[in-house]
Amino acid sequence: MSACAGCGLELGARYIMEALGENSTLVIPPGCAALFSGYGKETVTKIPGFQGNLENTAAYAAGIKAGYEMQGREDITVLGMAGDGATVDIGLQSLSGALERGDKILYVCYDNEAYMNTGVQGSASTPTYAWTTTTPGGKQGYRKNLAKIVDAHRIPYLATASIGFVEDFRKKLAKAKEATKTGPAFIHLFAPCPTGWRSRPDTSVEIAQLAVTTRCWPLFEIVDGVLSITKEVKKPKPLTDYFKLQGRFKGISDEQVEAVRQEVDAAYDRLMEGRV
Amino acid sequence: MKRVMLDGNGAATEGMRLARIRVVSAYPITPQSPISEKLADYVTDGTLDAKYIRVESEHSAMSCAIGAQLTGVRAGTATASVGLALMHEVLGVAAGCRVPIVMPVVNRSLVSPWSLWCDHQDAMAERDGGWMQFYAESAQEVLDLILIAYKLAEKNDVLLPAMVCLDGFFLSHMPDAVYVPAQEDVDKFLPAYKNDNLKLDPDDPMFINDLTGSNEFMEMRFQQAVAFDYAQDLMPGVMAEFEEAFGRKYSMVEAYECEDAEAVLVSLGSMSGTIKHTVDMMREQGRKVGMLKITSFRPFPAEAIRELIGHVPHIGVIDRSASLGSETGPVCNEVRSALQVLDKAPEVQGFVAGLGGRDVPPTTIEEAFDTLLNDKTVAAVKWLDVQDNALRLREVDA
Ligand SMILES: Cc1ncc(C[n+]2csc(CCOP(=O)(O)OP(=O)(O)O)c2C)c(N)n1
Ligand code: SF4
């Protein structure tokens, strides 16, 4: 059982498990994270886990949490760890349900910006102009703003994170875990996928850092409704530094790069004003 | 034990309360909504010590219930029709993970077209998914079958989820005098839930429901099939225990006036009451008819059916659902294959009736009996009360 070389999700999962500790329970839907669920009688997790369906990670987690609560075991952290497809597309309904109800679960969406496990098909989180097998000419239109959707539920803790900024991620995991004492906590984790992004495995961390330093993936958190950027990017790097490391942006034109520049800068400005 | 007026939904709710479910995740759908509402009342006023999760869909309702029950508590939910269909994917998870959830299903037609009313198409579409299925004839049976279902489902040799099916409106909304057992008596009959099999517990970590290769998958499916055999073997004992505790007698199939019958109609659910009534009427006229009610459709009591009606020359089965593209309805198919192994297998005539809530009055039942007695059997299936020219339906007003 192993992920592809250079998998951002695998790195992310290590930090997540470390932060959670043993007194936790894991829900994983189909997707690349199911590599950790295991195969047959083998699993890599040392905590109890359940592989659910693609649409209902949050619902399983909510039920598990309720079962524990009813047995006086409120101290167990229940984590849903789902891909972007399982979160922004097919799983959005159950996620929204759990967030609105205030279920005390931790949900980490690892975002590799496509459906990787089924062969790199586009998701609502695939960025504009990125190639996937179902957006062969580059994706038209914008990616769904997941943080904004989650924020609309007014949960105690919401953050974006990246495997390229480990200390920032660790701090956020600790805060998120703490926040589940009062309600849902959500982390949107940037996780490069060399296989789907057509990038070299040894560049995953570099790509993840560039996504932040170009403002493509801003790092921020929203604690009880108050937004703060946790990694300011005053002078963003050229987008081409980021794009050129990835085969999925191979066909991008200069005008398209400019359009993305305007988009990400506008999004960043909104964050600076405290809005998602 | 007290006797109170309850409709079928009320009886289902009392059954769940008495089983002390600890987590409720329910989503409203006609004609089941009163179950979700009453459970909310019970949790709010403290009658039921449970957490109520106001889920956003039936898919999530079943998912929540599975998650909760895997931690070691009974979890409750209820549904009907498209709600059951939406659960389909997750019903298989409960069954395969051997989570013995007991769920009232208030039978209602499946779209399209839309219908709010009763037939069994919803539950029949789930008949092969690894859930036990029990069909109630009265509100009393709803309550009793829920308790019986829990007792059986949770046995270590069984560990199968169970649907207790009740006919929409005919049972769900019809008040009746129902004996409600005392909590202490139910506690003795149905001790607290304990899951010794698959469970989520940080003190004993295991990973449940991961990808399984073809070297093991079939064996796991086979284990489920074996569990149905055990359920079939253990059910009479559970029903006897129930009778001892509460005084009411149940069996997987109930034969009514079958011994000397020349014609017998087989049915499920509330329609059985009408058939019994028609049997009484026709017997008064000297006509030898009988009824066989199937209470446990899954596991299917083939052996008992052979014993009880194998000798009857004319047998008809009334399905309250259609198996489209098949020769006849699902129950008829099962009864036929149960009987065909007999040396002198009786002919089995299929009937389809009562779809979309259409009433099945004694006159319709009598017509079915007449068909059998006069040997006017048609090749495969006869749709009762359907208009001669069903293809000409309605003029649409502009
Ligand atoms: C109802 C349903 N539809 C489709 C699938 C097939 N499927 C399995 S994994 C997957 C993609 C998951 O993508 P994502 O959540 O982004 O995770 P990743 O594979 O990228 O890790 C799909 C579509 C499924 N398991 N269930
Ligand atoms: S396909 Fe991508 S996300 Fe999936 S294991 Fe490989 S590198 Fe990781």
From TrEMBL, chain B:
InterPro entries assigned to the protein according to its UniProt record, in alphabetical order: PFOR_II (IPR033412), Pyruvate:ferred/Flavod_OxRd (IPR050722), Pyrv_Fd/Flavodoxin_OxRdtase_N (IPR002880), THDP-binding (IPR029061), Transketo_C/PFOR_II (IPR009014)
Gene3D superfamilies registered for this protein in UniProt: 3.40.50.920, 3.40.50.970
A single GO molecular function term of this UniProt record: oxidoreductase activity, acting on the aldehyde or oxo group of donors
UniProt domain Pyruvate flavodoxin/ferredoxin oxidoreductase pyrimidine binding: residue ranges: 15-234
Database matches in SUPFAM superfamilies: Thiamin diphosphate-binding fold (THDP-binding), TK C-terminal domain-like
GO BP terms: carboxylic acid metabolic process; response to oxidative stress
Oxidoreductase recorded as keyword: yes
Keywords for the protein's UniProt record, in alphabetical order: Oxidoreductase, Pyruvate
Ranges for domain Pyruvate:ferredoxin oxidoreductase core: 261-364
UniProt keyword Oxidoreductase present: yes
Cross-referenced PANTHER family: PYRUVATE-FLAVODOXIN OXIDOREDUCTASE-RELATED
Protein name from the UniProt record: Pyruvate ferredoxin oxidoreductase
Species in which this protein is naturally found: Pseudodesulfovibrio indicus
Lineage: Bacteria, Pseudomonadati, Thermodesulfobacteriota, Desulfovibrionia, Desulfovibrionales
